[in-house]
Specification:
- The chain is of the alpha/beta class and 251 residues long.
- It has 2 domains: 130 residues, Rossmann fold; 106 residues, LytTr DNA-binding domain (OB fold (Dihydrolipoamide Acetyltransferase, E2P)).
- The chain is 34% helix and 30% strand.
- The strands form 4 sheets. The chain has a 5-stranded parallel sheet with strand order 2-1-3-4-5, sandwiched between helices. A 5-stranded antiparallel sheet has the order 10-9-8-12-11. Strands 13-14-15 form a 3-stranded antiparallel sheet, with no helix packed on it.
- 24% of the residues are buried.
- The mean pLDDT is 82.
- This is Two component transcriptional regulator, LytTR family.
- Keywords: Phosphoprotein.
- GO terms for molecular function: DNA binding; phosphorelay response regulator activity.
Length: 251
């Protein structure tokens, strides 16, 4: 069940929308409160923690867009209700679910409710997928593979086959022992969180390396390491002590 709040300074508009929702969507949506101002709407949200807000824009004192300023995080859906089409641009700016032009009719409301249901399904699927992958990646006693998010889905890679990972701005390139490379739309920090900290060490802000593939390290001038495939990677000054401790501990 979706719990909703209606915020509109016009009594007739509030009651009409409430009755429309009850008549056609009572099995999906329950209106827990109707409010005549932004102030009373904020109080109702604090009380009920509603999932959905039907928000009028043109109101005295504070308008509908002022409502957003009362929250550090918008973790609920908002549907704007307005008689003015020009507010559509601001609707996009505030990432609201939809906006309904007054007078609200059943067809438009039905379309918006379907959009709400589709978004909730998508969020649920994403959360379930993330939970599944987290459980998979953390279950090191059973699996020796890691699920890496790719453009088309996920690819399962044997952890021991990963030689090193290279940061490329907001992307991360994973280099494997069979010369296979996988470009991820994730940061190096994200990938580091998935991998075994006893096996992989951050040697540089741009590099995460598998200790098993290091064949030598040169301490003259700038510290550099050489991997089994011939790759030469830099070790930053800030990471030098951490790297040497990891090598000595492993030895």
């Amino acid at each position: 069940m979706i719990f909703a709040i209606i915020i509109d300074d016009e009594f007739n508009a509030r009651e009409f929308l409430k009755k429309l929702l009850f008549r056609h969507f009572s099995e999906k949506i329950t209106v827990v409160e109707t409010c005549d101002s932004v102030e009373s709407g904020v109080k109702a949200m604090a009380k009920y923690q509603a999932d959905l807000v039907f928000l009028d824009i043109q109101m005295p004192k504070e308008n509908g867009f002022d409502f957003f300023a009362h929250f550090n995080e918008i973790n609920f859906e908002v549907i704007l209700t307005t008689a003015y089409k020009e507010h559509a641009i601001n609707a996009i700016k505030y990432n609201v679910l939809d906006y309904l032009l007054k007078p609200i009719n059943y067809i438009d409301l039905l379309s918006t409710i379907r959009r709400l249901e589709n978004r909730k399904k998508a969020v649920s699927i994403n959360r379930n997928t993330e939970t599944l992958l987290e459980n998979f990646n953390n279950n090191t006693d059973t699996f020796n593979k890691i699920a890496l998010p790719t453009h088309n889905g996920y690819e399962l890679i044997n952890i021991n086959n990963i030689m090193f990972c290279h940061s490329e701005n907001n992307y991360c390139r994973v280099i494997c022992m069979d010369e296979k490379e996988i470009l991820l739309s994730k940061t190096l920090k994200y990938v580091q969180g998935l991998l075994n900290s006893n096996l992989f060490v951050r040697i540089h802000k741009s590099y995460l390396v598998n200790l098993n593939y290091i064949v030598s390290f040169d301490k003259t001038d700038e510290l550099k390491i050489t991997l089994t495939n011939g790759s030469i990677l830099p070790v930053s000054i800030r990471k030098k002590e951490q790297f040497l401790n990891a090598i000595l501990h492993k030895s």
